[in-house]
Amino acid sequence: MEFLEVPAALGLSNAEWTLLLDFFTFREEPLARLPHLCQMEPADLDGALERLVNLDLIVPKDRDGQPWYALAPLERWLDGLDGADADALAQERAQLRRLRSLLGLPSVTVVANREIQDRQTLHPEILRYAHALMPNVDLRLGTRCNLNCEYCLLGHEDRYDRSAAEVAADLAFAREQNLEKVAFTGGEPTMHPDLLRLVSVARRMGFREQILVTNGTTLPYPGRLDRLVEAGISAVGISFDSPDRETAETMWRSPVFDRVVAAFDQVARFPTLNLGSIAVVTARNFRQLPDLARFFVDLDGRIGNLFVPNLDFVMPEENAWLNRAVVVPRLSDVAPHVTEALRIAHGHGLPLTFRGFPPCILPGLERYAYDRYMTIFRLVRTADGPVFDRMSLDVLRTKAPGCRRCVHYRECTGVSRSYANLHGTDELRPVEAA
Ligand code: SF4
Question: pTM (2 decimals)?
């Protein structure tokens, strides 16, 4: 959902509204953390923050002599607003109140199949793969990892494993919601000391599809994958960013290229495992995407698994934000290389997909946009039972002012706010109806 009435009624610029929305996602934070947390350049943040404080929308606090900031109570400013469209304003108010009320409550993330009316616009093999894996509960076992990739979405400080009891509680909650598929993610899930036990527990609970999302580095250890498959793992997604050793190891900041390549061979020993591969597209590797497509084509020719690889545009958060100068390219610079990679893969019958590129950036390739096959939401545990929440994820995305004229407006999820903070939205050009 896009907010129009509330920012207009408050007279906020795009940067000010973006910053105000960020404050809906945390309680209070020190000034020093805000640029990193909100993914804004300090100079942009300072001006926007000053205006929001002057408007009494953000409240400064003193914590041990340090400046902290928090969202002003909603009843002080949200209820009295006037707007051109009273119904739309009321709806936006309700959404903002709901967003705030769900803050901090325990939840699980669900990746579900998206309802698309016109199936002709979907690719049958991608659809088969999507239906095999979704809907699933996306279960993070923690943030601990044996790598520290330069684009990682998790900060590398204070990495931790969640307890087996916590994870088991999430599994039970997901089963209560009739979910039968689970994706174990991290960090690196194979670093979790109880992974095997949790896979066995999930199978006993009735999960019939269990997906391991891994950096692949531990799969070549003797017997590792055999034990996981025996316990219940039925699909594997391996991160693989470049067939060029130097580029890949620069991105992963670790000399593990041979081990990750060997992980694909391990999966090939079990042809019934569905195999995915996720390449994060950054400024380091985008010129090599055609070579990556050739690597995937060669792999596909050697294995019997259902294989759908994906090119995932980097999200400028945490490590990727810290390293933004060398990691985050402009979408429009990357687009020709994605197009060429898709041409190569599709020419060999391999349904290479992409995520994070709006349709206006890759026109005519919509059936390979994996975003069109899936939708992500949270199931929040409240005192009144589970609540479905998309808003807290939707507010992380944004579009351009002209997007309302675009034929893709309803289906498109735009770009991340952090990307817009970095590169703006000038590249997003509305696609006219044919
Ligand atoms: S709605 Fe906006 S971002 Fe999406 S395809 Fe259209 S112009 Fe691009």
Answer: 0.94
